[in-house]
Each structure stands twice: as structure tokens, then as C-alpha cells.
Amino acid sequence: MDNVFFTEPGNIYGNQLELEGQEARHAAKVLRFNIGDQLFASDGKGNRYRTKVTSISKNSVLADIEETTSHPESRVKKVLAFGAIKKRDRLEFAVEKAVELDAWEICVFDADHSERSRVNEERLRSIVLSAFKQSKRYWLPKVVYKDSLDEVFKDYQGFNPVMAHMEVEENRADKLNEGNNLLLVGPEGGFSDREIELAKENGTAFISLGKYRLRAETAVTAILSQFLFTR
Questions:
Q1: Is 104 within 8 Å of 144 (Cβ atoms)?
Q2: Angle between the N-to-C axes of helices 88-100 and 121-134, in degrees from 0 to 180, rounded to the nearest 10
Q3: How far apart are CA 208 and CA 212, in angstroms?
Q4: What's the pTM value of the predicted model, to 2 decimals?
Q5: Separation in Å, CA 155 to CA 35, 94, 150, 200, 202
């Protein structure tokens, strides 16, 4: 199972599924799948399918489903929210690594110290999909966008917030709480004093990511890695 393709849940019809667009072209033109070949696909909703290719055209690959493997939703979820990064390559790196490190959902928000820039949402979705397939995850994370940290706290009420903060000393990561956890990382300039106070008002736990100042995209990988093997 070297390659796993993505199929929209709506493209599963009984015991048959269809790859469309870029996924179909990659299977047919790049990897040169033929009729009768075994093909693995995921719907991003917890299901992976072992199939046999039955039809190939320019923008479509049809396959019969021979076996379905399903994984339920995790009972402990990590939602990553980080301040928007202006440089595109660093933003894309952060999103890619968040997928590989098991973020359930990724929230990009305009922090007080964020340098405003336009986010290419379609490109980020493509990066998420690529990392999802490469890491062979069962559930496809989604990326959402918020205008401020205030909006993040408002829309993620009921989550357990944890914020990376440089001024915290000797406070290491603890196990995640059962349910939904919100991991918060600031932009290049860090969180503002106003945002720190806002976090305190919302019952946020503060943790250190070490004694050195990290780039925003490095902080993303560091905070997710600390919770990689914890509940």
C-alpha cells in the first residue's frame, strides 16, 4: 500500500468508488494504473478501501470495493490554532506538519502581531490532502480561518485551551484532556499582552516549548510533538 488516493464521500456508490480530477489523472497518467490493478483509497471520514480498478478514462477511475477498513473518531482531539504566518513557504510547512502530527483541525487566525497576508486557501487544501495521503491518516483535517484570537475562543468554546508562551518556565506538557483540546501558537512576533490576558480569562493552561525563541512554524511542530503520545 505505497499510495493511498482520496475520494470524496459522495463518490462512493454501494460497492464502487470513483476517483476524479487530479486524483484520477495521478493514478492513470503518473502511476499508470491498469484495469484489474489493486488500488487503495480513503474518503477522509475514517474509511479506507481496498479496490480493484474496473475503468479508466481521462478524468475518472472507477474501482470495485473489495474490503473496507474503518477507524472511529479519536476520543481525544488536537485542534491546532496558530497566528497567520506571512511567508507562504513557512505557512505551508506549518500546515503540512500539523497534518502529519495528528492535528484534528487546523485554525489559522490573524493575531495582534500577525503581518497580514492573503492566504491561498485552495493551495493549503491541496497541501493538507497531500500530507493526509502521505501519512496514511483515516480522517482528513480541515483548515478554518478566523479574524482574531477573540474569535478563536468564541468559536471553540468548551475546548481545553493550551498556549505556548515563552515567559512560562519549567511548565512541561501534560496529558491532553479527554475530548477536544485547543493548542495555541502565536505568530512570529508572539502573542500580545492583550491576547495573553484574553487567554487567562478563558482558562488557558500555559506551557513552555523550551528556553529558546522558536519560529512560528517550529513552534507548531514542537507543541504537537509534545502531545504526540499523550492522551
A1: no
A2: 40
A3: 10
A4: 0.91
A5: 47, 22, 9, 17, 12
Alpha carbon distance 81, 184 (integer Å): 5
Residue 170 has pLDDT above 60, yes or no: no
Q: Which amino acid is at 122?
A: E
**Amino acid, res. 27:** A
What whole-number distance in Å separates Cα of residue 81 and Cα of residue 220?
9
Burial class (CB in 10 A: 0-12, 13-18, 19+), 67: exposed
Asked whether residue 172 carries a pLDDT value surpassing 70, the answer given is no
DSSP code string of 29-66:
IIS---TT-EEEEE-SBSEEEEEEEEEEETTEEEEEEE
Find out whether 216 and 230 touch, Cβ atoms under 8 Å: no
| Cα 149 from chain centroid (whole Å) | 19
* Nearest to 6, CA basis, from 19, 16, 17, 15: 19
* Cα 193 off chain centre by: 28
Residue 173 grid coordinates: 506538557
pLDDT digits (tens, 9 = 90+) for 117-135: 778 899 999 999 999 999 9
Angle formed at CA 129 by CA 126 and CA 130, multiple of 5 degrees:
85
What's the pLDDT tens digit per position in 138-152? 999 999 999 999 999
